[in-house]
């Protein structure tokens, strides 16, 4: 049995294990380790397991070790810590409060404020699921109390939560950059315009939806004075400061992405203690949650690194590139096929799992066509973002459903999500058709 066949069988085995709910890390590590063992054991023709033990263990442990000691990986715990600290210090929720004060007088303004708040939360935390979970507890119950239709109250937060994948910092961009050996700083900057474009599209969805059916968003009757609006805007200054440090610092060449992460965490802690919104107990809880979340990501990443080495050993990727080249697919046909694959996987798997499972095969294809890996990264993250709200397993939708309980059944949330999905698909087509949307900022560095 040749290496390519073993690789395809292992890939199928991973999909099978995922279908029966085996955690992605264990599925990748077990399939790739066993596949590597078989390749080395049959290299001389006859099955000789004693010859496969040392090279297999060497490959597994060396790849896991190399990944954990990757300098760029230190960004993940730093940005995860930033999200937890900023939330406990009230920095992220102040963004929503400021947006609510400014937009409440508009019909559907609280839903718009929820989306803007999700965008601001995403610009600090970099996690879509964390954004949906946190903002769902803050925004959705309030909209339901005000008489908002449960489709709008839930779908606006579920969709807004996906902005964490694109607006920097993004954990998905960090993982993509590590596995494709591309600049994480440029990936962060490439996500800014697509993220803002998506945010504007979501706000437009709410405006149009409420204009056509005003009953879904009753007038709250609450009006704030100009003084109150200014006070709310000023109160949100720490969030703006952190965003400027991350994006402005990277764009201006003042910081690397890792340095920006470290400085941002320090600033968030300093601001929290200075404003007396953060105490030592909150900081300790933030660090504990950071360790738990980071450990899970690292285990998946280490397993994925072993899987990447296994795929390289099998020779599947070159054969796949050769097959696609012989088929003479156009760039449009290639990207359409990739989009369909990711959208289908997004219905059943989590974003990190999809990325680490597919990148070993997709990246050689894209490089073979001479496409820009920074632009491709934005396309992939956008596809993963769409998967977070795509039925039947949209993770953000299930997060919101868990928050609201019986107030909004899953079918009602998915019914509201359809409008936001249409905007996501339009933005995806624009990103794919006009790479300049993604590359304008990073190329101007």
TrEMBL record:
Protein's membrane topology: Multi-pass membrane protein
Transmembrane segments: 110-131, 152-176, 188-211, 232-251, 257-274, 295-317, 329-349, 361-380, 386-405, 417-441
UniProt-listed InterPro entries: DctM, TRAP_DctM
Superkingdom, taxonomy of origin: Bacteria
Compartment(s) of residence: Cell inner membrane
Signal sequence bounds: none
Molecular function GO labels: transmembrane transporter activity
Domain TRAP C4-dicarboxylate transport system permease DctM subunit: from-to ranges: 12-436
Keywords: Cell inner membrane, Cell membrane, Membrane, Transmembrane, Transmembrane helix, Transport
Pfam families documented for this protein: DctM
GO cellular component: plasma membrane
Predominant localisation class: membrane
Family: Belongs to the TRAP transporter large permease family.
Function as written in the Swiss-Prot or TrEMBL entry: Part of the tripartite ATP-independent periplasmic (TRAP) transport system.
Subunit structure of this chain's protein: The complex comprises the extracytoplasmic solute receptor protein and the two transmembrane proteins.
Name of the protein in question: TRAP transporter large permease protein
Organism: Pelagimonas phthalicica
């Amino acid at each position: 049995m040749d290496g390519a066949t073993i690789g395809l069988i292992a890939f199928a085995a991973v999909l099978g294990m995922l279908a029966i709910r085996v955690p992605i890390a264990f599925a990748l590590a077990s399939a790739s380790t066993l596949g590597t063992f078989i390749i080395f054991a049959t290299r001389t023709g006859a099955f000789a397991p004693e010859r496969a033990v040392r090279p297999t263990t060497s490959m597994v442990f060396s790849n896991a070790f190399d990944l954990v000691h990757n300098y760029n990986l230190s960004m993940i715990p730093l940005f995860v810590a930033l999200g937890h600290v900023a939330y406990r210090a009230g920095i992220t929720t102040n963004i929503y409060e400021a947006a609510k004060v400014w937009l409440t007088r508009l019909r559907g303004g609280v839903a718009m404020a929820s989306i803007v708040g999700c965008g601001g939360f995403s610009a600090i935390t970099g996690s879509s699921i964390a954004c949906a979970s946190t903002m769902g507890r803050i925004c959705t119950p309030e909209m339901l109390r005000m008489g908002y239709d449960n489709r709008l109250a839930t779908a606006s937060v579920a969709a807004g939560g996906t902005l964490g994948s694109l607006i920097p910092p993004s954990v998905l961009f960090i993982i993509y950059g590590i596995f494709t050996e591309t600049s994480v700083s440029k990936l962060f900057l490439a996500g800014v315009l697509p993220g803002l474009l998506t945010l504007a599209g979501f706000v437009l969805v709410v405006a149009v939806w409420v204009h056509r059916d005003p009953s879904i968003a009753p007038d709250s009757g609450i009006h704030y004075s100009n003084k109150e609006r200014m006070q709310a805007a000023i109160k949100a200054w720490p969030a703006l400061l952190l965003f400027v440090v991350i994006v402005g610092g990277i764009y201006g060449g003042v910081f690397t992405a890792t340095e920006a992460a470290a400085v941002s965490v320090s600033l968030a802690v300093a601001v929290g203690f200075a404003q007396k919104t953060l105490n030592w107990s909150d900081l300790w809880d933030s660090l504990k949650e950071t360790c738990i979340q980071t450990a899970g990501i690292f285990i998946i990443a280490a397993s994925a690194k072993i899987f990447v080495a296994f795929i390289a050993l099998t020779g599947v990727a070159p054969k796949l590139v050769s097959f696609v080249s012989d088929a003479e697919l156009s760039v449009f046909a290639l990207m359409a096929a990739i989009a369909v694959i990711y959208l289908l996987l997004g219905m059943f798997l989590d974003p990190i799992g999809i990325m680490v499972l597919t990148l070993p095969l997709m990246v050689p294809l894209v490089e073979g066509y001479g496409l820009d890996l920074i632009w491709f990264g934005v396309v992939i993250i956008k596809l993963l973002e769409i998967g977070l709200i795509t039925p039947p397993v949209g993770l953000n939708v299930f997060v919101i459903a868990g928050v609201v309980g019986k107030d909004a059944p899953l079918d009602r949330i998915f019914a509201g999500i359809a409008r936001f999905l249409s905007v996501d698909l339009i933005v995806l087509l624009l990103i794919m058709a006009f790479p300049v949307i993604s590359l304008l900022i990073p190329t101007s560095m």
